[in-house]
Design goal:
Strand order of the largest sheet: 16-15-12-11-7-10-9-8-17
Structural class: alpha/beta
Largest sheet: 9 strands, mixed
Order of helices and strands: EHEHEHEHEHEHEHHEEEEEEEHEEHHE
Number of strands: 17
Length: 342
């Protein structure tokens, strides 16, 4: 696979710990990094890489770059992404694309004006459980699905002091984990037509306790799936990670990235290598073979997108649709009502 010259905006937990790791695994070259305090880390990780203080400085070296990855705080996405698109650089933006729907839509329209070189890092589409669940649904093993549940819960009574916990406008679990949860539900079961939400701040200024109920568009028979999506930082006993209910079986994942939940410890601790979750029919449990793939495949698709053209790995309009749901969730929680989505 061709090695691209990659610019990276931000070198914190996301830029270094996720994007940098995946790019290295795929044999890509980070050649320019925007950071103000991590130059030593950059030079240790990517010898010879240029370190610049801001996006404007990076744009000056646009001719030396094939791709730019934006892993800055969400509140900086609009100001970071716009000049990169105007410089006609292909851009991967960490999710969420922007804090609000209208800002996300403006970026996509700008990208289309200059050649459509924009995609969004919705890496959880490549999670083993998501890939496996898509295969289970495609095989029809659950019958007609009526409910999808996914939880992203942790116990962090002492919150970290970083922008994700402290930034009321662009931080919090609604925009962080909520963007993943909504994107996963829509990818599996189609567009949402209404959302009901409960949002609370328990230990941080930004939302750290999130519940959303999405009603998906009905099928030709008028049947709708309802998604229950939860994210919390003060959950001492996390529930099952994923549960999908159909009229013939359920799909159940009790762990998350190798971390057992109380459900797994109590009853479903028969984990087997090469399997991801269970098909459950009453007392009958059958382990499900794990579908192949992983997060690095997103960047494989990015490299093909940059070098060969074609559609982006993630349509940026999908990120706009997710932002619309998250905006509606804010209204729902504030006004205590279900909010329809046009």
């Amino acid at each position: 696979m061709e090695s691209l010259r990659v610019g990276l905006v931000g070198y914190g937990g996301s830029g270094r710990g996720i994007h940098g790791r995946l790019l290295r695994e795929l044999g890509q070259r980070v050649t320019c990094v925007v950071t103000r305090g991590r130059a030593e880390q950059v030079h240790a990780d990517w010898p010879g890489a240029r370190v610049v203080p801001d996006v404007a400085s990076l744009v000056q070296h646009a001719a030396e770059l094939d791709l730019v990855v934006v892993a800055s705080p969400t509140g900086d996405h609009v100001s970071s992404v716009a000049p990169l698109l105007q410089a006609r650089l292909p851009v991967v933006v960490d999710k969420p694309l922007a804090p609000r729907e209208h800002e996300a839509a403006e970026l996509v329209r700008l990208a289309n004006e200059v050649g459509g070189r924009l995609t969004v890092f919705q890496n959880r589409r490549w999670d083993p459980e998501q890939l496996t669940l898509r295969a289970v649904l495609a095989a029809g093993e659950l019958g007609r699905v009526h409910r999808f549940e996914r939880r992203w819960e942790r116990f962090r009574p002492q919150p970290q002091h970083r922008w994700k916990e402290q930034d009321v406008q662009a931080g919090g679990l609604l925009l962080d984990l909520g963007a993943h949860l909504v994107d996963s539900a829509i990818q599996l079961f189609g567009p949402a037509v209404s959302v009901t939400a409960e949002l609370r701040t328990l230990t941080t200024p930004a939302f750290d306790d999130v519940f959303m109920a999405l009603t998906h568009a009905p099928d030709a028979d008028g049947h709708s799936v309802i998604s229950h999506l939860q994210a919390g930082s003060l959950v001492g006993a996390p529930g099952p990670r994923t549960r999908v209910l159909g009229d013939e079986a359920a799909y159940l994942v009790t762990h998350y990235e190798g971390e057992p939940t109380p459900f797994e410890l109590l009853d479903l601790s028969v984990g087997r290598p090469g399997f991801e979750g269970w098909l459950v029919r009453g007392d009958e449990r059958t382990p499900v073979p794990r579908a192949p793939g992983g997060h690095v495949d997103l960047y494989r698709d990015v490299v093909r997108w940059v070098t060969d053209g074609g559609p982006p790995p993630v349509d940026p309009w999908d990120a706009v649709r997710t932002a619309r749901v998250l905006d509606a969730a804010l209204v729902s929680a504030r006004e205590h009502r279900a909010v329809p989505l046009a």
